[in-house]
What does this fold into?
Amino acid sequence: MKKPLLLLTLFLTVLSFIGCQKDIDDSGIIVQDVQYELIAKDSELYQLLYDQIVTEEFVCVTFDFPFNIHIFDSNEVEIANAYIETPAHLLTIIANLNDDQYMAFEYSLSYTNTSGETANASTNANLLEPLQICKLDANNIPRNSDLFNDLLDEVSEDPDFECIEFIYPFQMFVFDENDVEINQVTINGRDTFKNELTLVQTNQSISLSFPISGVNSDGETFTINNIGELIGALRLCEQDDIIADCNGSFEQEDCTFIVEHFNANVDEDFYQNAVIKDLGEGIVELYHEGEVIRGSRTAYFINDVLHNNFNFNDGDPSNDNDPDTLENFWNHDWVVNHYSDTLITLTNSGNITINLNSSCFICDSLSFEVCGLDGNPDIADIILGEFRYCIFEQNGIFNLNQIEDYRISFHTNDADAQSNENAIITNIYNNLVNPELIYVRLENLNNGSFTVFTIEFSINNAC
It folds into this structure.
């Protein structure tokens, strides 16, 4: 059935069109330096909002107006935005969203819950949780809900990696599509819990005999009293898994990360092609213009958003007001927009976005092959910093304490390396011949002894 013309007209009057935007990754897009989380029409969040606002099937969240909603097409390009002043406006936007379109709230979004408490949602997950709790009838968990699937995933984990170790026994109740109880099961252990959850049909739901107890990954016993606390406990588990995955991307053994500016409010080339190496145990090194600075790195969640914090200190307080200095550029709570084994994208509080591109290779010698430049295939951009750790490894220097006791410098001839003069300090070195030898000075900082040797770069003009 076609929607009423009046409703469509109202929908169009509250929209204002803007230009094309840049796609960052699947979790969100940056629009005019603001990151939005998209809500698809077939998502659980959209359906819960529809039930809440359109059909008034349940009332769980009372929004504080006004606020903005943005509309995106099937290519995740923003096509309109709406200034929402009343529930009628919100109803219009939700009801008229096309199947191939997305919507996004402009967070932070204020609302009042059923207890009369005012709260703020800063992410889709923040908004989804109270809607899920409200939708769940008493303590029933539908088979097709995210909570049921999260629970099944948790008890299906390898026991060595599970986040919550439930304390058994407890009771599980199964309900049919009419919420009539059809079964009661005593859950005596993890395998029983997994098997019984697997048997629940699509149109059925379950409830648990709250309170139930568990032991978290830190060995602490805790009590789960209701659905809301179960959602919270499982969400913490999910966040722990995400943090572990993110750390795994940073800590790849044979990899360094090359800094690439995506956009910047400072000198765009200042840290371009600097090298970051995660040494494990929360320790990182930054190699920039011939200098090595050791610092720390921590991944954590703030309001369901993954952050990464760097902390470096160059020991020079005279540069504290310079936005390009080490501390002012790096020491932020960076939002992790994307992470994988090949690329990590971070945005800091100053809306500076950087890509960290991984460079990985097996270190089996001190002869390296690099790709020539487009248009000049016999010349290469050689980022010397990414080879430092292979040089350490080839000289039997492996652990964190050993690395800190040595300094590496790069030179174009043996005399300069021997006298420690004219070191190459640019992040990129362009070869003069092919192949080319670079002279490395490896110095022991404890006693001043050093050794000089060569590494070879061959330029592959076919890649």
The chain has four domains: 5-135, 141-244, 251-360, 367-460. The longest strand covers residues 291-302.
